[in-house]
Amino acid sequence: MDDEQDKAAGSGEGPDGGGVEELRAALTAARDEARQNQERWVRERADLENLKRRAAKERADAVRYGTEGLIRDLLPIVDNLERALEHAKGTGEGKALVDGVELVQKGFRDTLERHGVSRIDAPRGTRFDPTIHEAVAHVETAAAEPNGVIEQLQPGYRLHDRLLRPALVTVAKAPANLATDGGRD
């Protein structure tokens, strides 16, 4: 009997009749499966880390820009206060009322600034910038540089680094006679 076992062991057959080659193939298949599982785990782990980073950024943005809707709703009130003050100053009546409204307006602006809101002004002569200005009219004039701001109709506002509302401006353009002549005499 010992001779038969020796022959089986020498031929690569196990006691159950399976060969070493089958065991090697099974081992190779198990290693491939383990490698694939490892790669899949690494990809899933990277996806999870990316998801965590995205969620953290979204939470930070929600905190930073969470008041955006409220601030957008408040900006017309600030504009109306400014218009009321300019009108009251023009008539010269109600000095005490004007002073009181100016204090309210200053408090309003200070509060907005504390919450990351900054005003965008476009004084006369400023170069038109479409990223922060909105041109509501173009006026032909030789008195101003082409693409320069002639008048600001409404200030713009920014929340941190995000534009809430562009400044509404009137922009200069070269007079038609200069543009068609090409400057010839």
* The level-1 CATH class of the largest domain: Mainly Beta
Order of helix and strand elements from N to C terminus: HHHHEEEEEEH
Give the structural class.
alpha+beta
First-to-last CA distance:
122 Å
User: Could you report the average pLDDT, rounded to the nearest whole number?
Assistant: 85
Domain module tally: 3
Question: Could you name the CATH topology of the largest domain?
Answer: Nucleotide Exchange Factor Grpe, Chain A, domain 2
Largest sheet descriptor: 3 strands, antiparallel
If you had to describe this structure to a student in words, what would you say it looks like?
The protein starts with a helix and ends with a helix. The chain has three domains: 18-65; 67-115; 118-185, Roll (Nucleotide Exchange Factor Grpe, Chain A, domain 2), CATH 2.30.22.10. The mean pLDDT is 85. It is of the alpha+beta class and 185 residues long. 57% of the residues lie in helices and 18% in strands.
